[in-house]
Amino acid sequence: MTAPAASSTEAPAVEAAFRGRLGTFTLDVAFRAPARGVTALFGPSGCGKTTVLRCVAGLQRLDGRFAIDGEVWQDAGSFRPTHKRPIGYVFQEANLFPHLSVRANLLYGHRRTVGRGLPETIREAEVVELLGLSRLLDRSPRNLSGGERQRVAVGRALLSQPRLLLMDEPLAALDRFSKDDILPYLERLHDVLSVPVLYVSHDIAEVERLADHLVLLREGRLVASGPLQDLQSDPALPIARMPEAGVTLPATVAGHDPAYGLTALDLAGGRLQVPGDLGPVGAARRVRIAASDVSLARHPPEGSTILNALPARILAAEPQDHVQVMAVVALGDGAGGTGARVLARVTRKSWDALALAPGQPVFVQIKGVALVHQEVAPD
Ligand SMILES: Nc1ncnc2c1ncn2[C@@H]1O[C@H](COP(=O)(O)OP(=O)(O)OP(=O)(O)O)[C@@H](O)[C@H]1O
Fold first, then answer.
1. Which DSSP state fits 173?
2. Which of ligand 1's atoms lies nearest the C-alpha of 217?
3. Is the CB of 330 within 6 Å of ligand 1?
4. Which of 150, 160, 294, 340 is most buried (most C-beta within 10 Å)?
5. Residue 337, CB half-sphere, CA atoms under 13 Å: how many?
6. Residue of 25, 45, 60 to test ligand 1 pocket, by largest number of atoms within 8 Å of CB
7. Dist CA 233 CA 224 (whole Å)
8. Tell me, which fold does domain 13-233 have in CATH?
9. Residue 4 DSSP code
10. Where is the ABC transporter domain (predicted)?
11. Whole-angstrom distance, CA of residue 110 vs CA of residue 128
């Protein structure tokens, strides 16, 4: 867990600490996250995610401190009001002005900030291109799909030139199809723009696609805060107990096997063969390996249809219940365990039968690998 630092001489950071009561609910949360990329606030309904975001926006006033890149927005002696905080806020509902065109909606926030002489770091043309809005500019928000409306809402928030973008369940009101439509655009924003994002969600799949850093909350308190991959591969955390527990890992396309339609993907500490063409050699990809798709063997498996069996070492293990054990293994055959960390959910019976334990060398068999990061089609 990370506590906010008193002063910020290190890498630019978002430092947040809020405590107080709202009715019967008590919030007491402190975390520090990088002031770049996407930080997801994740936890069950009612754990305080929206309250933290409202505190950051200055819409909810609780005791505490907030600073971004050393610039203090709140501490014991000061509280900057909402309208003086350079934030963009995207809610579950797009809340566009129905009587204005998409273009006028986009420029609404832009005029208010750039018109006041604030520097323009995010330009309209760039936002239109990144969010695929060029064909929607003259349309009325009334005639847009839910996903299109949210893309406009994100664009409007970005054009207000925020130091920090706050997104509160921006996809929660969308159906699966619209979510799949908008997610690649958000991934692209993340790749191209430098504005940091605090992203509230209770959808772990969404978080895994977008987030670099994770803040886990439960009942108004911090459970853990850290880089996504570190928290995903901690078998003691509640996200490892979710049925869909798994890890997302950076990978590089290493080659193709056209005869069998496979792509070779390099991860830290190992190479996988994955069905399909995942792009040119050298392309960076993000893949997801679910804990339930990984099994462990003491010896190199023979006579198996599973293509991927890689040497690894068990780093830690945690019983999940009476039946299952969650193990974290590091890929690679060295002793150091420095390769990518993968979760394996195995039965307690197999764990005992193979006398598995942390520190042991094993072979991980990986049954399925999903591509997480998708390309977006040009507008
Ligand atoms: N102004 C308020 N007065 C009283 N209770 C409040 C107030 N605002 C929030 N709460 C309570 O605080 C708790 C946390 O709410 P919050 O909306 O922050 O949770 P959340 O994690 O965002 O939940 P969800 O995922 O369902 O949106 C809830 O129990 C909520 O009822």
1. T
2. 21
3. no
4. 150
5. 14
6. 25
7. 12
8. Rossmann fold (3.40.50)
9. P
10. 11-244
11. 13
Cα 98 versus chain centre, distance: 31
pLDDT of residue 112: 65
Q: Provide DSSP, 275-290.
A: ES---STT-EEEEEEE
Give me the residue spans of the domains in the chain.
Answer: 13-233, 247-370
For residues 141 and 366, give the distance between their C-alpha atoms in angstroms, rounded to a whole number: 45
CA distances from 170 to 167, 177, 203, 207 (A): 6, 14, 11, 12
**pLDDT digits 0-9 by tens, 142-192:** 999 999 999 999 999 999 999 999 999 999 989 888 888 888 888 888 888
40: number of CA atoms within 13 Å, CB side? 25
Contact of 26 with 1, CB cutoff 8 Å: no
Q: What is the greatest pairwise CA distance in the chain?
A: 70
Chain mean position to CA 310: 27
Q: Tell me the CATH number of domain 247-370, given options 2.40.50.140, 3.40.50.360, 2.60.120.590, 2.40.50.100.
A: 2.40.50.100
Identify the DSSP state of 288: E
Amino acid at 175: D
Closest CA to 293 of 331, 244, 251: 244
pLDDT at 178: 86
Query: CA torsion, points 108, 114, 119, 122, in degrees to nearest 10?
Result: 30
Residue with CA closest to ligand 1 atom 30: 46
Residues of the chain with pLDDT under 70: 1-10, 111-119, 334-337, 373-379
